[in-house]
Write a structure and sequence with these properties.
Elements: E1 2-7, H1 13-18, E2 28-31, E3 35-39, E4 44-46, E5 48-51, E6 57-65, E7 87-89, E8 99-101, E9 110-119, H2 125-134, E10 138-142, E11 146-151, E12 153-156, E13 160-162, E14 167-173, E15 183-187, E16 190-192, E17 201-204, E18 213-219, E19 229-245, E20 250-251, E21 256-265, E22 269-274, E23 277-281, E24 284-287, E25 296-304, E26 307-315, E27 317-329, E28 341-350, E29 354-359, E30 362-366, E31 369-372, E32 381-389, E33 392-395, E34 399-401, E35 405-415, E36 427-436, E37 440-445, E38 448-452, E39 455-458, E40 467-475, E41 478-481, E42 485-487, E43 491-501, E44 513-522, E45 526-531, E46 534-538, E47 541-544, E48 553-561, E49 564-567, E50 571-573, E51 577-587, E52 592-593, E53 598-607, E54 612-617, E55 620-624, E56 627-630, E57 639-647, E58 650-653, E59 657-659, E60 661-662, E61 693-694, E62 715-727, E63 731-733, E64 738-747, E65 752-757, E66 765-766, E67 769-772, E68 776-784, E69 787-790, E70 794-799, H3 803-847, H4 854-875, H5 880-887
Parallel strand pairs: 3-11, 13-19, 20-27, 52-60, 61-62, 63-70
Antiparallel strand pairs: 1-2, 1-10, 2-5, 4-8, 6-9, 7-8, 9-10, 9-11, 12-14, 14-17, 15-16, 15-18, 18-19, 19-21, 21-24, 22-23, 22-25, 25-26, 27-28, 28-31, 29-30, 29-32, 32-33, 32-34, 35-36, 36-39, 37-38, 37-40, 40-41, 40-42, 43-44, 44-47, 45-46, 45-48, 48-49, 48-50, 51-53, 53-56, 54-55, 54-57, ...
Helix pairs in contact: 3-4
Length: about 900
Amino acid sequence: MVMSVRRAPPLPLIFLLMIHEVSSADWSVSYRHSHICAIKDSSVIMSCTYTYPTGYKIKKVFWTKNPVKVGEEYPDLSEDPEYSQRLQYLGDKQKNCTIRLSHVIQKDSHMYYFSLIADKPGLSNWIKQWITTVKDNVKWIGAPGASLTVTDLQVESPENVTEGQNVSLTCKSSCALTDRATFIWYGNSKPLTEKRNRNNQLLLQSVRREDAGRYSCGVKGHTYISPAVQLNVTYPPNSVSVSISPSGVIVEGDSVNLICSSDSNPPAEINWFKEGRFLGSGRIYSISKISSNHSGEYKCKSSNKNGWKYTAVTLNVMYPPKNVSVSNFSPSGVTVEGDSVTLICSSDSNPPAEINWFKGGTFVGSGRIYSISNISSNHSGEYKCKSKNKHGEKDSDTVRLNVTYAPRNAVVSIISPSGVTVEGDSVTLICSSDSNPPAEINWFKGGTFVGSGRIYSISNISSNHSGEYKCKSKNKHGEKDSDTVRLNVTYAPRNAVVSIISPSGVIVEGDSVTLICSSDSNPPAEINWFKGGTFVGSGRIYSISNISSNHSGEYKCKSKNKHGEKDSDTVMLNVMYSPTNVMVSISPSAEIVEGDSVTMICSSDSKPPAVNFSWFKGGTFVGSGRIYNISNISSDHSGEYKCKSINEHGGKYSDNVTLNVMYATKATPLSISSPAEIQTDAPKNIVVSTSPIVEGESMTHKHVEKYSDAVPLNVMYPPKNVSVYINGSAEIVEGGSVTLICSSDSNPPALNFIWFKENQSSAVGSGQSFSALQSGSFYCEAHNQHGSQRSDAVTVTVKEHHGSRWHEVFGITVECGVSFIIVTITIIIIMFIIKKLRSFKYEYITMTQISESSEDTYRLLELQSTTSDLYGTLTTLHPRPLEHSCTTVL
């Protein structure tokens, strides 16, 4: 069909008249179908051809549809998202303008137009410019276009049809399909190939119930299928049957359903009858907990508007045994050994049950009657019968055959939670015996009665419960003892005690000593020995041969088994030995001048501490006591001294110490000057100068006309041979102290002593003596105006104290505390005065020129003598009783 072509937008009429090449008569579109009817979801071919005037150049061809609103542009469908994926242009830019539109839907129903955009190259530039101003190109729309209608399919069918009638089904569409269509019919979604009549109709002749179902139609070559419609075929009840659920044998107590099934349309009404009596309605007749009373014939009646039909079924209810009981027949009424007894079992069951007899859980016979002749005690027990058929079984209640006899087979069993009886557990002893009537039970540990009853329980068991137990079973016919069982209670070690065995009673260095550890435990414990906290050996006995003082200390044993461990109390091993390390200290240790007081102290290491000290000059006994004092010393006291320290185990001498007493000249005065030469014109007036001469200086004597008697030359030097003396033992008990004394060789005597503890930068004390209260290594530094020197370090060890030792130390400390404080304060004051006087003495003598006047000389000598006497007097104030009573304890 040839159709006119219109331009869009239209050009002015005057311009069209001037340019005849743009006449509409030169443009045309021919659509093959002006109206197209297509099935939903199919593909549509819109075929067309077009012509255009010579001289134009086709720039673009496209299809469009009516605008949605008036005045809108005609859209290019290839650019529309709703069409772009479904539209395919099959033509060209010369003549053919055919397209394919796929998967059409009812929304695609529109008028569609072919359109093109063309340009004529021969137009003058000013015309092109004008056309461009109006529109860049000439756009033509092919009218009136092609109309597309998208339709679906619908099936027309009667709602109900009676079996045997004829029925016709029609497949309809909203428009006549453009292409010749071949219709396809479906029954229950399956193609029907044999029942097709005419093009769009399905004819079913003499319809049957099998023809009922859902019918739909489609067109060959298309995937679209119409919605299905239901064809309902009615017919009277047929093939009526009754089923029983569950199937098979019906047992009493079951829940049973009688189900009536029939083939009918519309569905039949179901009614139930038993022996002509109406029971109920509905396809299912339920009986819950069925019994034998429900046995019989049941009928169901199936009926609808087209007819009715009966069918019957018989219920035969089976049930397991019930009401099972045992009767006991005995001639005497009481069962005695030697009697005959008959047991009878009765029960109700369907089918009849098999009868079995049991004593306890043991099978003993079959049959409704069970007889026992010449009964004995072995027949005593509980009897029952078991009634059994294929639907179940039931036991009767038990009956007791009670044959009396004396106790026998008494046995004790022990029940402990852990299997091993541990102290603190709860243990149960159970006595089992065979007797009738039941026996009285008594319990015995060894031969002692401990309780009654079949069960004997011990809670929080202890080692005292260990032993052999038995039970005695007794009734009026006799008695029986069980075998004894051993109750072995295990427990952790306890009461660990150490005993010391020494031949002499007192442990002396060189003896052999045995330590024995005894403890109570089960199982026996492993024994380990410790000195202080150090492991030293194992075994119940710990022996030390050739014992020495190093073995002194606190010992204990550790007793251990799998249940725990226990330490003994510590015992003190106190090894006695004779004195060792006997030494003498001299105070003052510096220059000793005639008239001074000198103290010599004897110290030693021994156990017990030495209390007997003897002093010797040369080989001559001169005194007793740890401290030997010489007041107002003279030159006659010079010589070698030693002390002897004695305890009950022996004695030992110290090394000799030399006492060198300095004194002034007693003859012709002599003047000594240093470092210059000394001269004198008056031999009768020679003056002795006591100015210090420092070690290393020289002295020259010239023009001496007369020699005086010899006088001591007093050479000054800094401290040397500095050492620390420990007053007593270096081991102290915690809370106590030990006195350390610093001695040195110097001239003048060192009066400034400073104490240090190793690894500490600051001083810990001052003074010639120092009380150490804690463990460590201590040393002292001795100072005079010429220099200083430090001693070697000595070690002090503090041991952990025990109660008894603490009370001893505390008591002694209280007793001597007041005296100790008073004496200490007095000594500090005296030492301060001495230091000041001596400092004054030496400074005065050193700095003062020797006067030629004999009066001045004698005054100077008198000052020296007075100072020496004062120092000697003060040094004798050190209290000897305090040293013995307090220092020894520390």
